[in-house]
Amino acid sequence: MPEAIIIDTDPGQDDAVALLLAFASPGEIDLKAITTVAGNVPVAQTTTNALRIRDLGQRGDIPVYRGAEGPLVFPLETAEFVCGPDGLSGADLPAPASEAAPGHAVQAIIDLCRAAPEDGVTLCPLGPLTNLALAFRLAPDILPKVRRIVLMGGAIGLGNITPAAEFNVHVDPHAAAIVFGCGRPIVMFGLGVTLQAIASHDQIARIGACGNAAGKAVSGMLTRPRPGGLGSDGHPMHDPCVIAFLLWPELFEGRDCFVAVETGDGPLRGRTTIDWNGRLKRAPNAHVVSAVKAHELFERMIERLATLP
Ligand code: RIB
Ligand code: CA
């Protein structure tokens, strides 16, 4: 039985690869909707990008809903210096041929959860957690419908956007604190594991040689220039780790930990304190993933991407 999921996203090249991997896995994943949020680029652009990627995967059957314009409290910070002015540099995709569905992403998350059975929907946030936080505050009744939240965000060590924080949590730490406090099962993919998920040059070449439009776009995104100072030389596939976990959990290792989020506006803003050794004697609120078999992950990802149009 495929797992019913909602991908909440701020495309972004790695979001794009995550979406394509989900499109390529209909046997395991029933993607109910794509909801967009401001993050890598403003929400108008992340929504356009989600539509462009949906067209690339020829999945017009999956609705795209536009979401939050910015974080709950702080002004929006975006990352064009990493992903390019349109958020998808290297992909070389045309303008979207379709439009977003009517209605706000937060309401769509609420409606889809309300229509589901208990533990009926997995939420896969790949950007700032604003939409999920708003949904949980507006409609706490949906929480029992959330089977698990598998998210990309946070860091056990150095951040990327600041020394303390990973970008998604830095942008909206208040939303992250709400999600980490929601009481539903969380699987956390922080930089500690996602910076391990870097494809080799050979693997990138094989993606480009898939012979389909998806492979060409992914290869272009993974071979684009990359700014320094982000903790890696290649392009880490942060967000695809989330989808890969749904498909191949055996490729990952982790530990249940208590995670706290710093919401102050100082140098520690967005810090995720991960109590890896249980020193705080607090009940764990997340399964923190710490390791991935990266080579095998990309071998399997190449096989899936090759099945796309
Ligand atoms: O810090 C990496 C995360 O921030 C990724 O999800 C990337 O797409 C951006 O959203
Ligand atoms: Ca993202």
UniProtKB/TrEMBL annotation:
SUPFAM superfamilies: Nucleoside hydrolase (SSF53590). GO terms for biological process: purine nucleoside catabolic process. PROSITE patterns: IUNH (PS01247). GO terms for molecular function: purine nucleosidase activity; uridine nucleosidase activity. Pfam families: IU_nuc_hydro. One of its GO terms (cellular component) is cytosol. Coiled coil: none annotated. Residues 5-298 form the Inosine/uridine-preferring nucleoside hydrolase domain. InterPro entries: I/U_nuclsd_hydro_CS, Inosine/uridine_hydrolase_dom, IUNH, Ribo_hydro-like. Keywords: Glycosidase, Hydrolase. The keyword Zinc-finger does not apply. This is Nucleoside hydrolase. It comes from Bosea spartocytisi. The lineage of its organism: Bacteria, Pseudomonadati, Pseudomonadota, Alphaproteobacteria, Hyphomicrobiales.
